[in-house]
Amino acid sequence: MFSGARFRDWAYLLLCNLIWASQFVMVKLVQQQMGPVFATFFPMTVAMLFLIPVVHHEKMRTAGKGSRLPTRDTLEFILIGVFGQVVAQLFITWGVRWSLASNAALLALTLPISTAVMAYFFLGERMTRVRWISFALALGGVMECSGINWKELNLMSSKFLLGNLMIFLSVNGSAFYNAYSKKLLKRYTPLQVLLYSYYAVFAFLCPITVYVEPRGFTNIPQYNGTVWLGLVILALFQYFLSMVIFLNVLTRLDATQAAVSNYLIPFFGVVIAAVVLHERLTKFMVAGGILVLASTLLVTVYEEHQRGREAAEVVSGGK
User: Fold this and answer.
1) What are the domain boundaries of the chain?
2) 3-state secondary structure the chain
3) From 242's CA, which of 43, 164, 268, 316 has a CA 20 to 30 Å away?
4) pTM, entire model
């Protein structure tokens, strides 16, 4: 029997990637009245403020009191905050302005691969046969539904080179955060990992935002309802809920397993565009999405089932 817990983890990953797929639409909405730096800094700060009382309550309930972070752990939280969250969120906001949509879609396909590479170096995770099959299925599926315009694709043009580089760095920032966070999850809860990394984001981005886009603060009373809706969705769902869920799942799955689910982002992006913008959803896109769903199910549920069965055989064989 397949574990119900693994099906829940699979469902949680689907939810996370559905939320992440809406990021580009939300960022585009809020940038109607603010710049890219403020559009990154403000909702992440709101998410941080939501996390503070939640983490405080968690610490009081489990440990009874707070404790000072060791210097090494503080440096590691700064590392994942700046080189993970800041690079991932800020560079993608800037990069899509200076590149083609097809370039961004293709570069985004490197996220699971980058995560697998970093998981190998930071965590010692290995690529199993099931994982290779899942990667191949997911890649084939996402090619069907990602909407990449191969005629428009232009990665090496000097006109788009800076934007492409920013998108690539953003992808690797996400991969770094996902892989390196798992090391910290051995000593801290998912809520703590997220909050402490957001402290680093706030400390790094606040002076930059004040210097580069000070009007973002003074214009707050003038934001319209659509912009506020986008900010609320980014803060509560993108930077708070989805990240808490993902880090919780990451305590139970390898980073490489969770990374395969990121191929769902292009598919969910197509679905959101079809629902919200009434864009055409073709049968090839649907077929590609089903293939990606199957690949994530294979690497999360089936591989864990196989691992459990092999462990049981070893135990029974040793008796």
Assistant:
1) 4-305
2) CCCHHHHHHHHHHHHHHHHHHCHHHHHHHHCCCCCHHHHHHHHHHHHHHHHHHHHHHHHHHHCCCCCCCCHHHHHHHHHHHHHHHHHHHHHHHHHCCCCCHHHHHHHHCCHHHHHHHHHHHHHCCCCCHHHHHHHHHHHHHHHHHCCCCCCCCCCCCHHHHHHHHHHHHHHHHHHHHHHHHHHHCCCCCHHHHHHHHHHHHHHHHHHHHHHHCCHHHHCHHHCCHHHHHHHHHHHHHHHHHHHHHHHHHHCCCCHHHHHHHHHHHHHHHHHHHHHHCCCCCCHHHHHHHHHHHHHHHHHHHHHHHHHHHHHHHHHHHHC
3) 164
4) 0.80
